[in-house]
Amino acid sequence: MNNKEKLRRFFNLFTGNSKVLVVINADPDAIASAMAVRRLLRRKTAEVVIAHFNRITRPDNLAMIEHTESGLVELHTVKKEEFNTFVIIDSQPDHNEHFSGFKFDAIIDHHPVSSDKAPYVDIRAHYGACATMMTEYLKTRKIKPSAKLASALMLGIKTDTADFTRGATLKDIRAFQYLYRFADNNIVRKVERATLTQDNLDFLGRAIKHRKVVNNRVFFHAGTISKPDELVVVADFFQTLSKVNWSIISGIYEEKLIIVIRNDGLRRGAGNTAKDAFSMFGSAGGHKTMARAELELSLVKKQSKSLSKKVIAEWIISVIEKTAGKKIE
């Protein structure tokens, strides 16, 4: 099915009385893609609201929200009953428990298919970014993106493909080239330069000091944390180390054990590893080179027998080793 037919089916979901809630787990790709949905529906619906459930603390994400005027609201402030149409983008309903309270009319994503029950589904696991899909939607409708929307979509593509070094395709490159003519590069630079805070540096310093390296992989369990995004900062940083193939960084946040996984993409996929290792304890999955798990502490405790930092760290190592083999190289 071509993009023109997909869009026709997508627009059939809406009327002039539609009040649309787009629910996302906010990161640059999800934010940009949701902004594109709002632009596509601007004159076709009564209202489009973008709501996120995750806490946003990374300075680059906060800078993107500010400079692109994305207009996000926190999901807990939204009254679900005021909306009659629901869209999930850059995720699928089983990726996080916060999606479970909604019956989605549309699922648009680029992760491997795991939950595709909706009137409209467009999942393209071979794309590097959901922002690429939404750029094609805009092009199909002959909609010229504003400078802020084009900048956001560019950032979404750059982030999810790690500047075209991770899972990028020709479609992602072509979408980026198309957006470049409309984007404000001052916005892109401001967002990309806002990478670390003093708190991030302190957290990273602890991780460096207490890291554990086993068979070319780096582990660090932080214990109780206040900012889950700091796990991502550390996981990405450790992937820059020589002879490191995997980084597995974890912490406990709001009664969940959060595990962020990164790898070099040359071996077993991070997403499949996370799913096989941890899905019985909560939500887990992702891409070949990046994955995330959010596990119920009560279920973890039954397996690990304790929630102490040392025991949890050892449990994560043992589960990963058992799942992916003696060596994750």
Structural commentary:
By secondary structure, this protein is an alpha/beta fold. It has 2 domains: 3-193, inorganic pyrophosphatase (n-terminal core); 199-324, Diaminopimelate Epimerase, Chain A, domain 1 (Roll). Helices cover 40% and strands 20% of the residues. It has helices at 3-11, 28-40, 59-68, 130-140, 147-160, 170-180, 185-193, 198-210, 229-238, 270-278, 297-304, 309-324, and strands at residues 19-24, 47-52, 73-74, 85-89, 106-109, 120-123, 212-214, 217-224, 246-253, 256-263, 282-286, 290-296. α4 runs antiparallel to α5 (147-160) and α5 (147-160) packs antiparallel against α6.
Q: How are the SSEs placed, and which strands pair?
A:
Elements: H1 3-11, E1 19-24, H2 28-40, E2 47-52, H3 59-68, E3 73-74, E4 85-89, E5 106-109, E6 120-123, H4 130-140, H5 147-160, H6 170-180, H7 185-193, H8 198-210, E7 212-214, E8 217-224, H9 229-238, E9 246-253, E10 256-263, H10 270-278, E11 282-286, E12 290-296, H11 297-304, H12 309-324
Parallel strand pairs: 1-2, 1-4, 2-3, 4-5, 5-6, 8-9
Antiparallel strand pairs: 7-8, 9-10, 10-12, 11-12
Helix pairs in contact: 2-4, 2-5, 3-7, 4-5, 4-6, 5-6, 5-7, 10-12
